[in-house]
């Protein structure tokens, strides 16, 4: 089995909690964060999204900055596994960094006529103001 196939299998929500926690800890040494942005692994991609969100949430703003457009896309549906974790991490992000990407994502959501994503982005913005 390929390393990442095995690694993702340990991140799956159906694995024992100690196995998942160990995989999350192991991920701290992985610098390619693309591997954790809603990976489309088979047979069930969403089975790892919650733990991938936990991995991303542990990273610094500087680590996340190059991936922000894709991280914000996680908010397209707050029912997706890990979406609330990502939402909460974005609340803790540097204001300027977050505000810039929030505006870009809102513009994209409007262009795509994605009302749910736009609503979720406004929800994030409202939480920031509180």
Plain-language structure description:
The mean pLDDT is 94. It is built from 8 helices and no strands. It starts with a helix and ends with a helix. The protein has helices spanning 3-11, 17-26, 49-57, 61-64, 68-72, 83-91, 95-111, 115-129. With 130 residues, the chain is mainly α. The radius of gyration is 15 Å and the shape is globular.
Highlighted features:
130 residues; globular
Question: What can be said about this structure in brief?
Answer:
This protein has helices spanning 3-11, 17-26, 49-57, 61-64, 68-72, 83-91, 95-111, 115-129. It has 130 residues and is mostly helical.
What secondary-structure arrangement, pairings included, does this model have?
Layout: H1 3-11, H2 17-26, H3 49-57, H4 61-64, H5 68-72, H6 83-91, H7 95-111, H8 115-129
Please state the average pLDDT score. Answer: 94
* Secondary-structure-derived class: mainly alpha
Q: How would you characterize the largest beta sheet?
A: none
Low-pLDDT sequence parts: none
The whole-angstrom Rg is: 15 Å
Helix content: 55-70%
Helix-strand pattern: HHHHHHHH
List how many beta strands DSSP finds: 0
- Taken from the alpha-carbon principal axes, the silhouette is globular
Q: State the helix count.
A: 8
Strand content: under 5%
Cα separation of the termini:
48 Å
């Amino acid at each position: 089995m390929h390393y990442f196939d095995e690694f993702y299998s340990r991140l799956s929500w159906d694995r024992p909690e100690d196995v998942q926690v160990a995989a999350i800890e192991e991920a701290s040494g992985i610098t390619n964060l693309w591997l954790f942005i809603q990976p489309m692994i088979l047979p069930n991609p969403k089975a790892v999204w919650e733990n991938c969100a936990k991995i991303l949430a542990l990273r610094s703003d500087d680590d996340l900055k190059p991936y922000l457009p894709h991280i914000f896309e996680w908010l397209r549906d707050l029912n997706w596994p890990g979406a609330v974790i990502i939402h909460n991490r974005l609340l803790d992000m540097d204001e300027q960094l977050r505000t810039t990407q929030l505006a870009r994502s809102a513009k994209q959501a409007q262009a795509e006529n994605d009302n749910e994503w736009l609503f979720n982005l406004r929800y994030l913005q409202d939480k920031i103001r509180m």
